Amino acid sequence: MNSDLTMEHWRSQLEEELKSNILDFWIKHTVDELNGGFVGEIKSDMTVMPDADKGLVLHARILWTFATAYRLYQDVPYLIMARRAYDALDKFFRDREHGGLYWMVDVSGIPVQEKKQIYGQAFVIYALSEYYRATGSEEALAWARELFYLIEKHAYDYRHRGYVEALARDWSETDDLSLSGKDLNERKSMNTHLHVLEAYTNLYRVWKSEDLRMKLTELIDIHLDLIINKDNHHFMLFFDEEWNSKSEHISYGHDIEGSWLLCEAAEVLGDEEAIDRVNKVATAMAVVTLAEGLDKDGGLYNEADGHGHIDYSKDWWPQAEAMVGFINAYQLSGNAEYLQAAKDSWTFTKLFICDSENGEWHWQVSREGVPNLAYAKVDPWKCPYHNSRACFEALERLALIRY
Predict the structure, then answer these.
(1) 260 Cβ contact partners less than 8 Å away, ≥ 6 residues apart
(2) Count of alpha carbons within 13 angstroms of residue 21, beta-carbon side
(3) Within a domain: residue 49?
(4) In terms of C-beta density within 10 A (0-12 exposed, 13-18 middle, 19 or more buried), how is residue 49 classed?
(5) pTM score above 0.90
């Protein structure tokens, strides 16, 4: 594919997609009027599962999405959605005895998975700091700071650096570490560290704590020194306590997402040495993703292992991250090949991933672009965060590009 989309038309399409197909979908279809918060699952045919459990990550990501939308557009419906998500996190997920938030609650708000998954705590920090940016809520900022110190007190590995995946409700050790059935039950993962980095970056925008600065600096170093494979510039995905890699799998979506999140972290930190180091690595990661992960139609494959592709299907979130990551690579390098890859990624997404019939995005399409309707439209992982953020980021970045 070689999309000839003009910059003006591209930005127009992105804003229309963001407001009419993503944000409006969540406002119209996902509010749980009976129980509070948001419904836990909607099937691909728009069948609402009224008794589905509610996930921490889903509610945190809804808060981040609509806080950002309100910060940028000042539209009251976006603020109402953000407040609803904030209230649900506070009422249903917040553990007032031990601190932190539960991983999963039932439809009435009773915890069904009480563990403290660090990935989930991080996403709440990310969302609360954005809510503060949008509204100035000191309560939200104080809660975010509290979660930062809880993570550092209980989950940080003082011997080997980094963070354990999960702890029990009372922050004691647990053997139930994995995020989902797809993840290895290992002590440490790329995914959790990437999103702790993301959360601490957003918190540092609004809270210039020396404690936080030191931890954000260390997280950048951990990614560059321990998580990125120096031989091939891919993320390694799972590790034991001492950072020995436990998987050969490659996640193209995480590679390209991580490339721009690392750049963002270094920029927000304001450390010129870190910026220079990160930019070189991020460009190398984009080179590899472009060469290995991108199909001729502009879509990004899901996964590979050390020997080649193992999953040619294309999920929604890697497409979102590819567009932003390739724009970022263009901004770093000036190489027009990356901007073209970002255009092609968006064109593929608009043609095959965006659901023009029911709204929002399909979870997955085949290599040929056929939607897999077995996957939900909304569930604990299917959320408005990756796709809305791609639109927010691309709109901001494209406005700065003269091309």
Answers:
(1) 282, 321, 324, 325, 328, 393
(2) 21
(3) no
(4) middle
(5) yes
Would the CA dihedral through 93, 96, 100, 102 be positive or negative? Answer: negative
pLDDT tens string 100-127 = 999 999 999 999 999 999 999 999 999 9
Asked whether the predicted pLDDT for residue 154 surpasses 90, the reply is yes
What is the percent of the chain with per-residue pLDDT over 90, rounded to a whole number? 95
Question: Cα-flanking dihedrals φ and ψ of residue 39, to 5°?
Answer: -60, 145
Helix (H, G, I), strand (E, B) or coil at 60: helix
| Residue 271, in any domain of the structure | yes
Residue type, 237: L
Distance CA 124, CA 137 (A): 15
152 within some domain:
no
Q: What residue numbers bound the domain in which 331 lies?
A: 1-30+248-403
Has residue 390 been placed in a domain?
Answer: yes
The tens digit of pLDDT for each residue in 37-93 reads 999 999 999 999 999 999 999 999 999 999 999 999 999 999 999 999 999 999 999
Query: Per the structure, how many domains does the chain have?
Result: 1
CATH number of the domain bearing residue 361: 1.50.10.10
Select from 43, 113, 116 the least CA-distant residue to 375. Answer: 43
Which tokens is 205 given? 């925008």
